Amino acid sequence: MNTTEQERILIVDPNPLFLEKLAQGLRARNFDVVTTVSSMQAFHILRDWSRPVDWLFSRATLPGLIDGWILADEYHDSHPNRAAVIAASQAKVCAQGHVVLKDPSPAAVLDTMQCIMAQNQAPEIASHTKGSEERLAA
Response regulatory domain location, by residue (predicted)? Predict the structure, then answer.
């Protein structure tokens, strides 16, 4: 987890009401939230190495040539050990380990994102603690 800056979350959803409700919930939890209804803009945000995205939520179906699955693949290239959260018409298993939710509410997405962030943070804390213990033992 980045301790010097807020973690950055990209939300991609063509429904502006859902998008804003989810963004408000994440901002209230002290995250840097970037929102867009455009899949092309989301793709460019994911490719902007000067401001990396730490977490991704996207609808599977988006207007345009780029869908949520392509965005999740792009995200996975930078974060192979982190799951994106994808909203789809049907829940399914994803080979890259992304979490696919069936037509979730903003609250369900918030809960899911907090769970995957906590799961990701636990191995980092354990790794950091183990490294500290090894240095002390030496």
Answer: 8-117
